[in-house]
Amino acid sequence: MAETLRRVLNLGIAAGPGKNTAEAEPPLLLLGGPGSGKTALLFAAALEAAGEGRGPVLFLTRRPLQSLPRRTGPALEPLRLQKIRFQYPPSTRELLRFLCSAHEARGPAPSLLLLDGLEEYLVEDPGSQEAAYLAALLLDTAVHFSHRVGPGRGCGLIVALQTQEEGGDSGNALQLALLQRYFPAQCWLQPDAAGPGQCCLRASLEPGGLGPREEWWVIFQPDGEMTVTRWPTQAVDTSSHKGSSSGGQP
Amino acid sequence: LTLPAVVEELLSEMAAAVRDGAPIPDEHLLSLKFVFGSSAVQALDLVDRRSVTLISSPSGRRVYQVLGSSGRTYTCLASCHYCSCPAFAFSVLRKGDSLLCKHLLAVYLSQITRTCQQLSVSDKQLTDILSVEKTQEA
Fold first, then answer.
1. Which of A5-14, A27-36, A235-244 has the highest mean pLDDT?
2. Which of A94-103, A147-156, B75-84 comes out lowest in average pLDDT?
3. Domain range spanning residue A59?
């Protein structure tokens, strides 16, 4: 699902006509600390996918969005917003129930499945097998939706996970390593130098063996407006900041 | 959670051999033993005993169940590596010293040899099977 996020980050600059590569796209894990813009990017991905003339977008989150992220790339067209269905499973048990029964739902299958705040569903139930089952069920549900959407299209999956501050305990590291096995493609959001009132992040997309790493600057203005610029160089020196590579996280 | 390319290759070579109507060549069985150790023999035993069932519902969703040697039934997802057995939780997920448990390997081998039992259930029953898995370990 790196392609949808890549289009969001490129803001249509280099995207050209939408590539229908969703079926071949691996599920993507969006990682970042508190307030790193994960929800804004997920919402932008939802709007992007909703404009593709395909099925609806399913957005799972524990809590309703407090406000619509402002100008997150694609326009907030009513027709796009209508295609985004929000579901608010209040507990891990309810999320599991939703995923286990996803095949019972009628109507058009989603073309994109999004989950915000996976960490909130993992704190209740910290066992590694439970975390693995949740990850595996998310994948299984997306595969089932893909099957229903039909060949050549598929249903993408992007899951946002809040990472711990430096020095998180070993249980969290274990859980992250486990999730990374189920989500080969990852996008890290990391704080970077910011101007007054701005929040500046670096987004590193590692598409899981399907291509080179790509990077962008994501800047949130004080009014919440998001602007994205591509990191200037194509070839990124991976050794200079290993913190953003999947192996170097705590 | 993906298998190393060498394992994928071995499984697809075995599948090709079986498609041509031949028994699985001994050298492939030896490779299997080399890669998976004692799990390979146990998995082949599960296949021989037809312990793998592919459960599907009208929705098209599918899940595997494997009847273990202890008499317990374990659930394996069809779309990605997951088995509800303790060995998967410990050796595969936690320690990372195994690629697969014997049940998942038995699922792959029974796909190759086309010896899965088939069971059709209602959409609601499939929901229950997937949901029960959660409490199985408790």
1. A27-36
2. A147-156
3. 2-187
A69 belongs to a structural domain: yes
Token look-up 């993507």 returns A28
Determine the residue of chain A that is closest to B61 in CA distance.
A144
Q: Is B131–A148 a contact, with Cβ atoms under 8 angstroms apart?
A: no
- Residue B126, CA atoms < 13 Å, CB-side half-sphere: 29
Token code pair at residue B118: 């088939």
Count Cβ–Cβ pairs < 8 Å, chain A vs chain B: 71
Number of domains into which chain A is organized: 1
Identify the closest residue of chain A to B75 by CA–CA distance.
A133
Residue of B55, B93, B98, B107 to mutate when probing chain A, most A C-beta within 10 A? B93
Instruction: Say yes or no to pLDDT of B104 above 60.
Output: yes
Does residue A210 lie in a domain region? Answer: no
Residue B75 belongs to domain spanning? 5-136
A140 vs B: CB within 8 A: yes
Q: Is the pLDDT of residue B127 over 90?
A: yes
Residue bearing the bigger pLDDT, B91 or A17: B91
A10 part of a folded domain: yes
Supply A215's token pair: 């990077």
What are φ and ψ of residue A161, in 5° steps?
-130, 130
Q: Residue A35 maps to which CATH number?
A: 3.40.50.300
How far, in whole angstroms, is CA B19 from its chain's centroid? 19
pLDDT interval class at A73 (50, 70, 90): low
As for how many domains chain B has, the answer is: 1
Report the amino acid identity of residue A228: V
pLDDT at A66: 72
